[in-house]
Amino acid sequence: MNIAALVSGGVDSSVVVHLLKEQGYNPDIFYIRIGMEDEEGYIDCPAEEDIEITTYIAKKYGCRFEEVNLHKEYWDNVVRYTIESVKQGLTPNPDVMCNKLIKFGAFDDRCGKDYDRIATGHYATTHVADGTTFLSTAKDPLKDQTDFLTQLTYPQIAKTLFPIGHLMKSEVRDIAHNAKLPSADRKDSQGICFLGKINYNDFLRRYLGEKEGKIVELETGKVLGSHKGYWFHTIGQRKGLFLSGGPWFVVKKDIEENVLYVSQGYTPEAQYGKEINLLGFHYLSADLWGDFDSMEVLFKIRHTPDFAHGRLSQVDDPVYGRIYHLSSDTKIQGIAAGQYATIYDCRSIEGTDYDTHLVAATGMIV
User: Fold this and answer.
1) Could you report the per-residue pLDDT of 264-281, keeping only the tens digit for each?
2) Considering only CA atoms, which of 312, 41, 42 is closest in space to residue 195?
3) Is 346 considered catalytic here?
4) Which of 45, 98, 111, 346 is catalytic?
5) Domains of the chain
């Protein structure tokens, strides 16, 4: 089998190469350059250390190494999506789009098309049932990344290998230490991948500027202060409001008037909701349930180790028409338009030594 391994220089993707070699494969290694260092003013996004480690891994295991520059594709797709979503008052998820459009999209168009499978260091697994490959959860619930893969197409899922999905993070680091890999103790990357060390608000300020608006208490209508643009704030946000007598949380945004509505307290009721409407609903691999009026499901609307439990149904909406609706059994914090809901089948997969669930479907919150 001809395998392309996407290696970033981190411990997870480095161990992927080690495991593939142990299994008798000789993958070609690819490093995808997507950072903003090609843009004027973004000199603080160095990829040199990543490439140095990836080069070492390739030499250690005798693998061919190639650096692939997908900066333009990333800018045209993921960065533009991020900016446009924020302008519309939505909460974007650029890492979800990076996986779909770049790591499993543009890379496959450029290089991956010549390979049978593409291996990555994501914490996820796949499961084949009745000849269909399904995305499924990883052994480590804290590291599970299926919610970041929820926009993959079926051909992308079927072609991907997740060699570390059956391992705990501690096991991955143990393998790296035993193999004396330079990335063994390297910290996991944080934040949005294309920004590097660039502050997210500085990025937004560069492309959207500033515009002063009011901060208003939702319950009373009292003006509490001002902000520099609704695009700097997300639903559920606490930090960066600079209001006294807090804590205060952003609970609503008026895009037309550039007004932030806030509510006070550690757990203000206005932060929570149980009803979630979804547009663009689709099954990732195949329809698991057929016709149904209401279906018991597990779901996530943000990156978390815990599932929420609820019911999925179809409803008629006066604005959007026929849509899918999630009704959560418990109150969910910070439901924000633009986020993706990842929906899992409640049944655990039989025959695995840990609690594994199939990723069934996804939709965007409106």
Assistant:
1) 988 888 889 999 999 999
2) 42
3) no
4) 98
5) 3-121+163-178 (3.40.50.620), 210-266 (2.30.30.280)
